[in-house]
Design brief:
Blueprint lengths: L2 H5 L3 H23 L7 H28 L2
Helix pairs in contact: 2-3
Length: about 70
C-alpha cells in the first residue's frame, strides 16, 4: 500500500491497518520459521508496509507534541 493511501485513512482505520499488518508479519515469520513459507520476499514487503504505516501514525503525533512544547 502506498503512503498516500495510508495518509488518507482516518485515525481508527490507520490503527486497524497497523494491527492487521502486525498480525501478517507475525504469521509470515512464524510460517518461515516452521518451513511452510515458500516465498520469503513477502516478509520484507509486509515489514515495509508496517513501517510505512507506523511512520504515518508517528507523523500524526508530532504536530501535537510541538504545540505542547515537548
Amino acid at each position: 500500500m502506498k503512503a498516500r493511501q495510508i495518509r488518507d485513512m482516518d485515525e481508527s482505520e490507520l490503527l486497524e491497518h497497523v494491527a492487521t499488518l502486525r498480525k501478517e508479519v507475525f504469521g509470515l515469520r512464524f510460517s518461515n520459521a516452521t518451513g511452510e513459507l515458500d516465498d520469503t520476499s513477502g516478509i520484507g514487503r509486509a515489514r515495509r508496509d508496517l513501517a510505512r504505516a507506523l511512520t504515518v501514525a508517528r507523523e500524526r503525533t508530532l504536530p501535537q507534541r510541538r504545540r505542547q512544547g515537548n
